[in-house]
Amino acid sequence: MMGSDDPAGFEEEGLSAHRLPRFWNPRTKTYTVRQATPLDEDDLSILLSVGFYVHRHLDWRSASHWLSHQPFYVLEEDGFIQAALACPPDLPGMAWVRLYATNSPFDARQAWEALFPPVLEALQAEKGFTLAALSLHEWFSSLLLHTGFQHHHNIIVLEWTRRALHPTALPPHVSIQPMTEEDLQTVCEVDHRAFDRLWRISADEIAHAYLQSAYASVLKCHSQIIAYQISTRTGSHAHLARLAVLPEFQHQGLATRMLEDLLTEFTRRRVRTISVNTQHTNHASIALYKKAGFVLTGESFPVYVYPT
After folding, report:
1. Candidates 3.40.1280.10, 3.30.2350.10, 3.40.630.30, 3.40.50.2000; correct CATH number of 157-300?
2. Tell me, what's the pLDDT at 171?
3. How open is the CA angle 213-214-218, to the nearest 5 degrees?
4. What integer pLDDT is reported at residue 79 of this predicted model?
5. Domain extents for the chain?
6. Where does the pLDDT of residue 24 fall: very low under 50, low under 70, confident under 90, or very high at 90 and above?
7. What is the pTM of this model?
């Protein structure tokens, strides 16, 4: 469907034919760059449906959510949004490229070079900021490297396939319980102490992850939450999205207990495969998952950071 000049196909997807923009030709030089607003929601939806180059960060938010957060800039021509770039921070000083899309079939770089400077200027207003990007496409990796981003590490994927389980009994003072809304603030504190700055998420983001989870649990030691996990599910496949243990309780087998509980629960629900992502440099994490029966899939996605 991408790049089609047949409006009927888009009408089937709920998009009005008369709102479809023409392919953007950057040589026209008649565009303007401005901040996005919530009023751009419909046009942004069209751009994401017809855009030739679309990058969307893997998180729990819709693209339209970020319209009320800055920096989020759009490139507009003849009343149509032809490109968009969103990098609003989730936590102070830490931003990801949440969205980049362009309707130009010629070059993904042209619109980026118009949108990136105002976005970068807005982020630089805060000292010590970090801007990172997780690339799912080769064209996006090339664009980032051309802009000056530097390769930081790779995200790799491991997968567990349903098999016999032999969970270990928990010590008397340790329990694993379903996560509740009352746990979220403490879960956020565990998250921020367990993860490096690059991978921490805000309390609001944790709440969204919890609401969209298929199974979320906390591990308590003497009634204190010291670990948590949040997992999602699509059909017969589940994904372990977050797993964290307080630093002072690490290397005591607690993450293994959380994994065993997770695998047992999803096996009970007839889930066949479970995936998880981790950094290729996190050898302890890789060893943990392999010990639990996860195997590398061979998939790898680079993470880039803009130098500051």
Report:
1. 3.40.630.30
2. 87
3. 70
4. 87
5. 7-148, 157-300
6. low
7. 0.88
